[in-house]
Q: What sequence folds into this?
């Protein structure tokens, strides 16, 4: 997302995929979904909002509201377990919105994700996960780093 021209193109793939779905709102989670929600919404000509963490849940703050039945597209950067998408889905439904679809830049889930609504990813790649005792890097004593962390 550091290169706006590529972000615009990838968001265009998501927007084009969901164009026929009568999307009325685009929502994403902080942090990865903020820019994507804005850009996909811009391309679809609708509002874009984001859900922030509040304790153990995500919610819409800053005056972001969803009308009952408002057809909402949820977007995020990476889908691995689907947790962020599930949290935004819950926030949308708590406000009475309808989740019409989910779009992500990269689906890297091991077995594929099922959300019960149309799902689109710009790229699908399988990223294996391991229990610590089975991790080849752990066994080789190679320290792990987390993107954006240490």
A:
């Amino acid at each position: 997302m550091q290169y706006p021209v590529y972000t615009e193109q990838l968001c265009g793939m998501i927007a084009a995929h969901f164009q026929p779905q009568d999307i009325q709102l685009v929502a994403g989670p902080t942090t990865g979904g903020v820019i994507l929600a804005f850009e996909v919404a811009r391309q679809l000509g609708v509002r874009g909002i984001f859900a922030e963490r509040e304790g153990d849940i995500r919610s819409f703050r800053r005056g972001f509201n969803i009308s009952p039945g408002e057809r909402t597209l949820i977007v995020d950067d990476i889908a691995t377990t689907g947790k962020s998408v599930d949290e935004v889905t819950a926030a949308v439904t708590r406000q009475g919105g309808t989740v019409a679809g989910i779009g992500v830049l990269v689906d890297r889930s091991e077995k594929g994700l099922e959300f019960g609504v149309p799902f689109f990813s710009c790229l699908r790649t399988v990223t294996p996960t391991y229990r610590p005792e089975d991790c080849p890097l752990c066994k080789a004593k190679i320290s792990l780093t987390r993107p954006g962390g240490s």
